[in-house]
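Notes to self, Phage neck terminator protein gp12-like domain-containing protein:
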Amino acid sequence: MMPKRTFVEVENLFRDLLCDILELPIDNKQIVFSYQATGVPGWKHDQDKLFIRLNELDDEYSKFRSSLYYPNEETVIKSTSRTRVWEVYLIAYGPHACDVQNQIKDGVFLQKARRFYFKNDIALVTDYPQALRVPELFNGRWWERWDMRLRFNELYVVTEDVGSIEDVQIFVNEPKEE
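result:
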């Protein structure tokens, strides 16, 4: 069971997955987040660039919670699990943008991706993703752009020490005679 992740940790998790699928090093400059805290993302017309935008979705599946209680020495631990549903929106620019999206579209179903999901307590929602061509006019020039959405479920677990029962009073009611 994975500890609960922060939003940034989830972003990095999906970036790692995409690097693995595209066979790029983790420190590459081709895959970036849509909302960068510093700098201006710039690239040339003939370069490929992939932006990741991550959103947690309001989904029926994410509304259910399940709690289990475990004894732990002199206390009890409550473990509450739920599912976080993530939309990973991928925006690819460049001359190979369509190829990049197709490589991802096929890569999310490969065995190495499945092992990644299992190791990280995530699951691909298996609606087959479609890449959409959305050329973009920027500075008087058309840029090749392809967008695609992926959806994942993540197991999210919160644990809490709920203490223990120290004293119990038991009352026995005598059955009434008729």
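- The mean pLDDT is 88.
- The longest strand covers residues 75-93.
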